[in-house]
Specification:
The protein is α+β, with helices and mostly antiparallel strands. It folds into five domains: 130 residues, no CATH class; 120 residues, 2-Layer Sandwich (Phosphorylase Kinase, domain 1); 189 residues, no CATH class; 39 residues; 68 residues. It is 61% helix and 8% strand. Helix 15 packs parallel to helix 21. The longest helix has 35 residues.
Amino acid sequence: MSLLSFWRRHYRDIPRIRQIIAVASRHGFGHIIEQLGLQRFISLGRRILTFKKQPPPEHRLSTPERLRLVFEELGPSFIKLGQVLSCRPDMLPPEYALELCKLTDSVAPFPFREARDIVEKDLGAPLDKIFAEFDPVPAAAASIAQVHGATLFDGRAVMVKVQRPNIERVISRDISILRGLAELIEAYVPDMAVYNPRGIVEEFARTIYRELDFFIEASSALRLRTNFEKSPIVYIPQVFPDLSSKRVLVIERLGGIRIDEVARLAQEGFDLSDIAKKGAAAYFQMVLQDGFFHADPHPGNIFVLSDGRIGLVDFGIMGRVTEENMEYFSNVFVALVRRDFDMLVQQYLDMGFMVEEMVDIDAFRREVKADIEELLEPYYGMKAKQIDFAAYVARVTDLLLRHRLKLPQNLYLVDKTLITLEGLLRRVDPEFDYLDSAKPYVTRLISMRRDPRRVLRTVRKNAEDLYTFFGALPRQLQTSFRKFLRGDIRIKVQHEELHTFIRDIDKSSNRIAFSVITAAIIVASSIIIHSGQGEKILGLPVFGLIGYVIAAFLGVWILIGIMRSGQL
């Protein structure tokens, strides 16, 4: 995308673009704005004052920290983008993903009047006809919605989640701008293009639009409630579909104590070790058995109820684990127990894909195997509770990324969820053995591998795939041969970074043209002054003096451009 195309597409969004530019430059990212050519959207004076090659003293933080501050200041869309990126260490460097995990989603509430209007409009009745009581003061407020306490006419206590007014329009506008910026980055900043900016934006768009639809959240809560319907350790609150819409969600209010209020839990007589085990069991059942899990296990979403059960709330972010993923988990666990590093490498190859084309697959296997052995051997001499699961997963992820392997997005979400959960449960019980809690579910996964029905299903699927492949092969060969005879087979050649080269040529050409024009003006002005013709000021022809002024201005302009580029 060219800058002109960006302008044509987003001219209505100029105020928001200027805000993004101002915030980014204030936090030390002005050089990227210049690379994209977006400095043209603000005045010359502001450019001179704000665009620096180095951040000012107050911004001598790390680059990931400054990026987090940019996202926080730019509001809901960018906060959610940062949260999505924090789950994807394959999409940006790990230190950035780790820093973006710190993004806070707590903002000032919007007025009760607006919340009431949304509820009444979506549910089709006055507020006092729907609820016996409705607290006008929100219990919590986030970037997308806020939550109010209420009571139904039958006496049941509920929480009413109300979406922020016009938030979907705001987010749609920001996504459109982000798409344009992603295209500019890929065109003009090759060093950042390797992180696939357009792919990041599209994944973010899919995630955020699902979170904006409260019908989806209601459906997720209902499914999770069904999975734990008879569970003695987990309780999922009741959802009221008849009182919910795309922008309003009514769900049972849970009492209890936040799981991170350890002192209060101990004071109330709860067994902290038992609570940690129940929390782990809940998530291992979701991930390793049901294949559908609550993917936002921060302390505000997990409560300990009066009967000792674990209560979960907020079902906006959910993860899924396929049967293929289950097979992968079981094979990885078996390989780890047996110290079968060849099998482990094969699993990583089967579940991932090459980001770069491999020339020598055998050499690749040897390299990965050697690194995995070096990584894992120290862990075999340790007890399970001594292993820092978060550090282990982070090291394995880093290893896979170094070897150009990219795992499916849902597996990264599993990693983040289980890592966050481990940190939370060890705050509850420092002696908690995380891996020991997973053993029953891992044993079940391994036994499933030997299930004759599962084996038969796998054989049948492989046979169908082979039939489809060989059935289509003659037709594909025939088509390819016809193209060859007609001379229609073409080789596609992609010029890497050719756009950057063309852009630099354009810049140089423009500077040369400006220089020639400036020189011509100087020559013409000199001739006029030498002739002594026309109106005069201080004894010199007016037009000659005007020409010198214009030439001086153009010369300074060219000099500033050259100095700002850093290429003299």
